[in-house]
Specification:
863 residues, alpha/beta, Serine Threonine Protein Phosphatase 5, Tetratricopeptide repeat, six-stranded mixed sheet, 62% helix, globular
């Protein structure tokens, strides 16, 4: 055979292997089959197999065996092809070809779910193979690493993947390097290092010339799920599944469907989660992977339990449903135990935990205790959600037995796992999103505390849960030019859309929408980029009722702290003062939400300086009635004659607390948790940064008046008020005042913004800045609002500033009229300069306003 013919055959083999590596399995299978047939014909025309033709046939048969299994799930057909390949290798006496066949047997065992059995042939292949064959060595290390991951041997697996990456680089094959980086990221994910996982996975995607394939998207989504970004992960998994269908990868498609089911459980869409988990189970069964079919069964159980738990809250527990769920979960757990150590932890442990909780739903406390005793001690590599879930079930059992001490001990055990996990997270976005994994633990704690009727128990339980994800994720921002570039690009696209303006012209409208779509794409990339940076800040220590009461008593203050919580559709409050604490039932949450919406609508009318007087008078009257309702329902029962600090979440933070009639002239401030500070923190400096944004009629005059209050001030107006100059100015200021248009983005709260000369300044751009000791005043509409994440954490521009250490943030929870801001703000700053606390300064500044003002002081509890 000529050299040209040999090169042609070698090129075809390489092309088939690349098609398989790119997950184009059907095309690869066809090419392997054709190549095998042509080589056999060539051998029949000659003197039979030669060393060179045997190499081709063995590798083509091995490749075809992999494709056949991926497409049909048939181990028998795969092994038949490998037997044929082994016979060819024996006929020419080439040990390295026997290693190739042995390695593929290991791969088929791995794909079938028998990872324990897969390690031996993969190791034998590495020992027998040619160490200079970079492709074979890279692939074998990739596959053995995957088997070791399944067995929980994460450090050896990481070592295998790193060796695979080295050989792939020497081979010059970016596809294999990409696979190795993806798998290294997966190991980091399992070890709890989410930022490192995302870095490696993004590096993996960048190496793919045609952009992310289905496997890469699914891997990225799994990390986002671990962080708690469930909606984002679910959307990516939909795209991944579609690509995997096109790529002919049945097993990988099943994994994407199963991950979607997990997302749906977290999103409390239980019926959809059950349907997806069953679909994944069918796909796994079809591909012959009975072990992973059990993993799908576990997710199905989790969704069923979530639905039963929700039904029990509304209608009471059904003992029959609980008994049926318990029996099913135990059967799945036993099946998992029979599959080895990994399935024991991935199937047996969670299934038993679900069984124990079903026993508790049915009132079978002794049975729940027996089941929990069967749960083995969790290994350090056990998934973070499973460790938290175990402590939640242990706490639930202890509380059900009226063992408060044991229950709280279990809650604290779960929160230790949470603290270890969140310390690795960097961005505020990631920290707040990860709270989704602690929802059940917090709910169990608070429900039990409410059942005791003891104010101290409720206060402590609420703050244990809130502190777990409060505070900043990192101490200092990373230096990341690419992140800065993405945010700048997003800003330019938004400004370009603004330049198009409101229009009825179809072409112009399409241009505007294209700019906004591109801005959103850049924002999404920036978010992903920010998640790759590690953290460094520890979990705050939660305040207790005893420590708070002691601090209030030591200062001799009449301050009342109202810790609000929503339970069973009702707003309850733990009222704490120096003299004691009480648990109060205040109002139906729906009524509160309805009145928040009504107040915002009335403020919106009042913010328009051009509306007729009769309409303004009607809006004022309506607003006063709404504020009076808030006063009667939420404040009057608190009997707060002096200072009032409100700790709350969700829509309760959108109540215009400082505008309530009973709070006129009195210090009132709010926060999302009780961040207890003893003694007023010193202002970092008396230097003020004063900023005026564009297109506000009184912004320039307001900035001039505010600047005149302070002896030292930097004033940025007109073209000087750029995003970069304002961010730089934050670093050296003790007081920051921004008069600008503001936007709260409910669907993407970290892109809530202030509009400056060169476009919007996003909350994202402030993430990591040290604001300790700084008072921030935002003279802008609605930037005091925040959006609750699925885990309960609130996000918005104001909450980001507080998480970065701001001493206080004064911001509006509704539209704020320009002339009102221009009157109130100089008075507010005069009070601050004179030494007043921010909440008191705001109360005095708005006391004489003829109409209610929607400004609220947000900040820690300073006593």
């Amino acid at each position: 055979m000529s050299d040209d013919v040999r090169r042609a055959f070698a090129d075809r083999l390489r092309r088939a292997q690349e098609l398989n590596a790119l997950a184009k399995v059907r095309a690869a299978s066809t090419e392997f089959r054709r190549l095998t047939a042509e080589v056999e014909r060539w051998e029949r025309r000659g003197d039979g197999p030669t060393g060179w033709s045997a190499e081709l046939r063995v590798r083509a048969l091995v490749g075809r065996a992999a494709c056949v299994y991926a497409l049909t799930g048939s181990m028998d057909e795969g092994n038949r092809l490998l037997d044929e390949a082994g016979a060819v290798a024996d006929s020419v006496g080439r040990p390295h070809l026997k290693a190739v066949v042995s390695g593929q047997r290991g791969v088929l065992l791995l794909r079938s779910g028998d990872s324990q059995a897969a390690v031996r042939p993969l190791t034998a292949a590495l020992e027998q193979g040619d160490p200079a064959d970079h492709r074979d060595v890279a692939v074998l290390h990739l596959n053995r690493g995957s088997a070791l991951v399944d067995l929980g041997a994460l450090d050896p697996a990481l070592h295998d993947f790193e060796i695979a990456a080295q050989h792939a680089r020497q081979l010059g094959n970016d596809y294999y390097v990409s696979f190795a980086m993806h798998n290294i990221g997966f190991v980091h994910q399992l070890q709890g290092d989410v930022p490192a996982a995302l870095q490696r996975m993004e590096e993996s995607v960048r190496l793919l010339p045609d952009g992310p394939d289905g496997l890469a998207l699914a891997g990225r989504a799994r990390v986002l799920f671990d962080v708690g970004l469930l909606s984002e992960a679910e959307r990516i998994l939909q795209d991944a599944e579609a690509l995997l269908v096109d790529e002919g990868l049945g097993q990988e498609r099943a994994e994407a469907v199963l991950d979607r089911a997990r997302c749906m459980v977290g999103l409390r869409r239980f019926a959809e989660a059950v349907a997806l988990a069953r679909k994944a189970r069918r796909l796994y069964t079809r591909s012959g992977n009975s072990t992973w079919a059990l993993y799908a069964r576990v997710v199905e159980l989790e969704a069923m339990l979530g639905a039963d738990r929700a039904a029990a809250t509304e209608k009471g527990a059904s003992r029959r449903r609980a008994a049926r769920g318990l029996e099913t979960a135990l059967a799945v757990a036993r099946d998992g135990d029979a599959r080895g150590a990994v399935a024991r932890y991935g199937v047996g442990v969670p299934a038993r935990l679900y069984a124990a909780e079903w026993a508790l739903l049915g009132g079978a406390h002794e049975e729940a205790d027996r089941i929990l005793r069967e749960v083995p001690r969790l290994r350090p590599w056990a998934p973070f959600p499973v460790r938290v879930q175990r402590e939640a079930v242990r706490a639930q059992l202890a509380f059900a037995r009226e063992d408060r001490r044991g229950g709280v001990r279990a809650v604290r055990g779960g929160q230790r796992a949470i603290a270890e996990y969140r310390e690795r997270l960097g961005s505020v976005d990631a920290v707040t999103a990860a709270a989704v994994h602690a929802v059940r633990l917090g709910n169990v704690d608070v429900e039990s505390a409410l059942g005791t009727g003891r104010p101290a128990a409720v206060f402590d339980a609420v703050e244990r849960g809130r502190a777990a994800f409060a505070g900043s994720g990192r101490v200092r921002p990373p230096s990341d030019p690419e992140l800065a570039r993405l945010l700048t690009a997003a800003r330019r696209e938004i400004e370009a859309a603004r330049d198009v303006g409101a229009t009825d012209d179809r072409d112009q409208l399409l241009r505007r929408q294209q700019h906004l779509r591109e801005a959103r794409r850049m924002q999404d990339e920036a978010r992903r980029r920010s998640w790759q940076h590690a953290g460094g800040a520890a979990t705050p220590t939660p305040a207790t009722e005893r420590s708070l009461r002691g601090a209030l008593e030591a200062r001799g203050t009449e301050c009342v702290v109202a810790n609000l919580v929503v339970h069973g559709g009702e707003v309850a409050a733990v009222r704490v003062s120096a003299s004691g604490s009480r648990l109060l039932r205040l109002a139906p949450f729906e009524r509160v939400a309805e009145n928040v919406r009504r107040a915002r609508a009335d403020f919106a009318v009042l913010s328009n300086a051009l509306i007729p007087v009769p309409m303004r008078d009607a809006a004022v009257a309506s607003l006063r009635r709404t504020l009076a309702w808030f006063d009667d329902a939420l404040v009057a029962p608190l009997h707060a004659a002096g200072d009032l600090h409100v700790a709350a979440r969700d829509l309760l933070l959108a109540v215009p607390w400082a505008a309530l009639p009973s709070r006129r002239g009195r210090r009132t401030w709010a926060n999302s948790w009780v961040d207890l500070l003893r003694g007023e923190p010193a202002r970092r400096t008396d230097h003020a940064l004063v900023v005026a944004g564009p297109d506000l009629r009184f912004a320039g005059a307001e900035a001039k008046l505010v600047s005149s209050v302070w002896d030292s001030a930097t004033t940025l107006t007109g073209l000087e008020a750029t995003c970069a100059s304002v961010v730089e100015g934050f670093e050296g200021a003790g007081v920051v005042h921004v008069a600008a248009h503001g936007t709260h983005e409910p669907d993407n709260p970290l892109f809530s913004s202030l509009r400056l000369a060169d476009g919007p300044l996003f909350a994202h751009e402030l993430d990591g800045i040290d604001l300790r000791g700084v008072v921030v005043v935002l003279s802008a509409c609605e930037v005091g609002l925040s959006t609750p994440r699925i885990g309960g954490e609130s996000l918005g521009l104001t909450s980001v500033l507080l998480r970065l250490g701001a001493r206080a943030v004064v911001a509006s929870v509704a539209p704020l009229r320009d002339d009102v801001a221009a009157r109130v703000m100089p008075a507010l700053h005069a009070e601050l300069r004179a030494g007043a606390m921010p909440g008191a300064a705001l109360a005095r500044a708005v006391a004489d306003e003829p109409e209610p003002v929607p400004l609220v002081c947000f900040g820690p509890l300073v006593v």
